[in-house]
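Lab notebook, page 48
Experiment: co-folding of the full assembly
Goal: obtain a model of how the components sit together before planning crosslinking
Operator: M.T.
Materials (sequences as entered):
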Amino acid sequence: MKTGAQILIESLKDEGTDIIFGYPGGSVLPIYDVLYDSGIKHILVRHEQAAVHAADGYARASGKTGVCLATSGPGACNLISGIATANMDSVPVIALTGQVPTGMLGNDAFQESDITGITMPVTKHNYLVNDAGNIRRIVREAFFIAGTGRKGPVLIDLPKDVQTGQVDESENLKTEINLRGYKPTFRGHPKQIKSAIKLIAEAKRPIVYAGGGVIASDSSAELIQLAEMLDLPVTTTMMGLGAIPAHHPLNLGMLGMHGTEAANYAVTECDLLIAVGARFDDRVTGKIELFAPNAKVIHIDVDPAEIGKNKAVDVPIVGDAGEVLREMINLSETLDIKKKDPWLVKIENWRENHMMKYRDDKELHPQYIIEQLSGILEGEGIIVSEVGQNQMWAAQYYGFKSPRQWISSGGLGTMGYGFPAAIGAQFAKPDETVVLIAGDGSFQMNIQELGTVSQYNVPVKILILNNMYLGMVRQWQELFYERRYSYTELPQVDFVGIAAAYGIPGLKVEDKDDVEAALKKAMETDGPFLIDFRIEREENVFPMVPAGAAISDMIGCHIPDKEEAKR
Amino acid sequence: MKKQILSVLVENQSGVLARVSGLFSRRGYNIESLVVGRCESPDISRMTIVACGDEAQIEQVKKQLNKLIEVIKVTDITERKHVERELALIKVNAEPGDMRSEVMQIAGIFRAKVIDVGSKTIVLEITGDSGKIDAIEELLKPYGIYEMVRTGKVALQRGSATVLNSK
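Observation: model returned without errors.
Model output:
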């Protein structure tokens, strides 16, 4: 006989789980008791929200499924923004929650919340387990659902009596997965793939628009191969950064609201848009009617519901990006698709003249810090961001070389995500340098995780781009609300002092000349390190497409020098 | 705006109705009626959903329904040959005398069944397509309808076509 909790831990091990981020409580005591000497590593965070973000960061860095654990009621509710984050960005996460005993369900018992009801719209699927005998099957299904097709979070709610329930497992332990309503499509339709190749052969101004799906399906090698074979310029979404090296001659950089001029112009002028694992999000497309307005569209996505959702598509291909791209490569090998010379010349010209730029003077500009970081790490390492200006500067100025190097909350834009996600990423890749790029606002949303970093000596490097503002909101207020900075100013904080209180070394940097040395010191330090960069307070993220405008309609492309700016 | 009839097979489990109805409400889809009940296999329920929207919206509804793990199959039977029925119970004012015989006459014309007779009211059961039920409702209104309940539409494809064997 085994208890439900024992079966749960065994099942997690069967799925390859070796680490859980969690926070104990009354309703998960039986699980924690088994976990204690189970061999699975458990990381005690300081807030359940950090547990789910850490599991998410772990999943994004490793490509494996992350697991988090919280107690019932408030513990489970604290997971919600993290679950929604993973759902929007299609990250495989298993959230385990305790629940009041089945006999008390619906009774408003102490620390009861209807977490399966609450998370229904933000999970890929969820389960309320009513019998310990079902745990093994449900865990298998949950991992299968989370990690296949369009990946996403799955929550398993475990009432306390189910955790302690006795099960005789003398029968066959192997439970076959039989989900008749869940059959993700992996292989693209051959006829559609042929039509796509035909369109590419006919196109004069093609461009690839690659998204997070390329990262999630580990198909960036195929993407680069196809682009090089057919001379296809590539732009990526923020979620797709790293799918093609930043300095690859065919890469136009990020597109969209804070994309490069080059990428936004090229998409506007293209006659064929090849979307791969991207979902035509409004932050990418701007005014959708003017997004690639004269282009035919090929859309490759594992989720059929994304195809045609925002933009009409000429050739829909449902399937795994890697599978589809490999088929396209096979087909292209036999064809002679000529170089699109005038288009490539134009692309090259855009790349040379319209990439990212900022005013590089004596002031401490955040862009400069990111560039220096990129230089010191030679574009390696794992860069995790918070949300806001810090995120956009990191996305714009870091020279990513490969996939899974960039970890950031895209769809939901969750402030407070980055720090715990960086912790999770560091546990996934203990030998990599993990750098958190944060704002002073977002860092303070999960600042308590300094405790976790300290306890486990997690060697993340914390870079705070501190402008004493909720910078992105302030930027919008400056541009669209007559500089009325309504509740966006934050008082100064001694972040180095706070880190010191947790036993974490740090440095404050106010001068541009000290940036390089400080970054080197952080990288050389064994263990965590924090740098509080006191940056130019009213620096903006440019270029920028105002909300609702066409993406070719950017502001802030011309960077005035200081004299010009004063006038 | 078109009305579409979706025939949906789902796992017969608790929570499935909440998932489906939640999907409609949070994505802002218009639902005219939703009927759910068990069907030929005990572990499957059939939902008949009448939804309104343009073609693209309905396409999204179908795709989003298909994404639910517990949804086994979605078939749009609007354009397929099908039979549809709705049932209504109508409690209508029918004082003994002329009024009662008129109401009975209307019921007869519509082949409605009288399933309860009270001192002042009768309850009619009527089955048909939605138009037929609308029509009898209109005719009975002048007599005074106390209460009415309509089931919403149920539908099946004609011939040997089924949801599971439909493309």
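Interpretation: The CA atoms of residues 99 and 143 of chain B lie 8 Å apart.
Next step: discuss with group before ordering constructs.
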